Amino acid sequence: MVDAPDMVSRALREAPPDQLAEAADRAIRSAMGALRTDVFVADYRISGLWPVLDPDLPAGGFLACHTVAQRCFSSQQPVRDGEGPCRLYLPLTVWGERLGVLLIELPAVPNATVTGRATDIAGALAVAMRAADRETDRYRRARRRERLTMAAEMQWDLLPGRGVSHHAFDLAGQLEPAYTVGGDHFDWSLDGDRLTVTVLNGEGSGLAASLLTAVTVNAMRNARRSGGGLVEQAELASDTVFYQHRGARHVATLLLEVDTRVGRVRAVDAGSPHLLRMRGSTVEPLKLDQQLPLGMFAETRYELQEVQLAPGDRLFVVSDGVWAAEPPGQEPYGQRVMARSLRATRLQPPAEAVGTVMRELHAYHADSDLRDDAVVVCLDWHGPRERGTG
Description:
Beta-Lactamase; 5-stranded antiparallel sheet; 36% helix; PPM-type-like_dom_sf; Serine phosphatase RsbU, regulator of sigma subunit
């Protein structure tokens, strides 16, 4: 038992990328005397958790597991169910990105030491699954509840992830409609004291929109990875899109750069994604000077603006598909209703908050299909405290 995390970690390192769940199952049974294990992964909509090891679990057993697993996933805390045997559910999370839940069934209720070891094992499995995701389709197949369009396949592959945690901030994003999204997108990167976040309101629909977004995102990444700041990222992407389409296509984009030492946000507002700040229970749009969308004209030049964050501030960035959503006979979602949805997330972490806003958006549409792509990104600014302090 003492070396259980080490034994599982070694088994994961030696396993093929598509066999991580089986390797973890064997090692956990051997090291901890577990009766069984399973791995549940979150689907693309984050609307449910689905088994990897036992996809044919009977409906009754699956629903019983699913309810407790969902509680673990939402709380990001270990959850016990039963006494003998006892099912222990542990979050599979890496760098703040929620992948799913690990189930370990033990003969008896585990003490704090055993639970701690199991938590370490879940952490090792989450890291291994994140690394293996580029080498196998198995976990992606488990995540999808229906077939993705070609455009959506490209968009999900282009994402950096769906969440990231840091001592100074927590960040999460979500795309909808998850299985048919076309051009809307978000991207981020953490490099030292600089967090870069971009949200794109893609023009058009389907594969053409996805291709345009892919070109734009990769141009911004090229500038960023070469050491360029926001202005260089915007200008390279704008020139790249313009010389591809000669002004016939363009991409509305909001580029943000957060200095994690002091909470200063530099911004380039090149179009229509909307930036809102929630301070306490007050939600207000942050007015930035809008500049030209990327790709509209040759050699467009961009200027920086600055916003200062205070500890406890929450930023939302939403695309036009959220802000301007207007079901027949109703006002645009962003006019009044969205502010209520944002305030309702006040006690939720960003990963839960983006899901809440999307669910409220679907409800506003009376659960009919969204007419436009929608992106929500949520950033909680904790303040520049040192890592490991309260």
